Amino acid sequence: MNEQTANTVAAPSLPALSPQKAPPSRAQRPFRRPAARRRKRVVVSFILCVVLPLILAIWYLWVRAADQYASSLAFTVRSEEQTPSLDFLGGLSELSGSSTSDIDILYSYLQSQDLVAAVGGALDLRAIWSRPGVGWQEGDPVFALPPDASIERLVDHWRRKVKVFYDGGTGLIELRVLAFTPEDATAIADQIVEKSSGMINALSDSAREDAIAYARQEVELTLTRLKAARRAMTEFRNRHQIVDPGAELATRVGLLGELQSQLVEAQLELDMLLARPARHQVQTANAELKIATIERRIEAERARLGLAGPAGGEQAFAGLVGRYEELAVEREFAEATHRAALARFDAAQSEARRQSRYLAAHVQPTRAETARYPERGLLLLCVGIFLALGWSIAVLSAYAVRDRGAG
Known about the structure:
By secondary structure, the chain is an alpha+beta fold. The chain folds into 3 domains: about 35-65 and about 375-405; about 65-210 and about 360-370, Bacterial polysaccharide co-polymerase-like; about 220-345. It is about 65% helix and about 10% strand. The protein contains 11 helices and 4 strands; from the N terminus they run ααβααααββααααβα. Strand 2 (about 160-165) and strand 3 form a beta hairpin. The two termini are about 65 Å apart.
């Protein structure tokens, strides 16, 4: 009994215990551990996706990548316009003048397989661009070309090593040729100038040959037409036995005028005989016969000249002169066109004897003394930006997907 009383008395002297809070639910727990885990993953992913590739790029660019030398050159296509020296033909002799697309053709040729094959025939491009080797152990697999590369791969590598900069406003083309030795870069640039000049000369020769062939064909056609016109004129003269119907017509018109004068005189003479009181019948008859004869002769001449209706028929001088004038016009036109064709042919031959378009290199291929390529700092900066952007996009995308799934 005393023990219970003591326990009862002692109990109030103990400090009161505060009530314990209930443990937070799972939804109310702070995300400290998952957030730390995510930060760790982000850091690890940054190291794996950005830092390590950058270290690899630095090692490759400064340890394994071979030095490259650049040779620069610049040229354009020049043309000479021929001054029209045959203005009396009405400008028909103006033949020369290069097309404005010559520089565009050259720009396309500089990146074509034809030029690669042509330069490769003079220089061993595969050996030049595979000089450092392509193996990972000792070579340069990024900037070097395999020695057994196909022509298609060689063309692709050509476009990496030979950069073409074209200014369409001025028509200037600049090139930068890369190789692993300065001698090789300069040799390739020299071959580019030589082959490009040959291509432009071939275009010029082809244009000149086409112009000469066309002019020669035109001369042959006009000559055939002139021969036909002259043949028709000769046949007309032989058929009608007349050399110049114009002169013949003038003669016959003069004869007709003289006959008419004689007719007037004969009529006056007859009138005078009839006016005499003691006229002789024989004289009167002779005068009347003379007048009738002259009139018949006048009618015959008029019929032959075509002045008395269709009696003259095809032999009428009016028809003959008209046909002769047609033949004369055709002959004159054939002669004029033939002279013009001969003038154009002479002009085309004169143009062919001189060079109307040519490649003008205002910057000859240079020889490098320092290896400026590959541009390691710029390449490293580009790689870093690309990796950082790619990593950022991937992380943001992962967070977006997670937030959408949690919601």
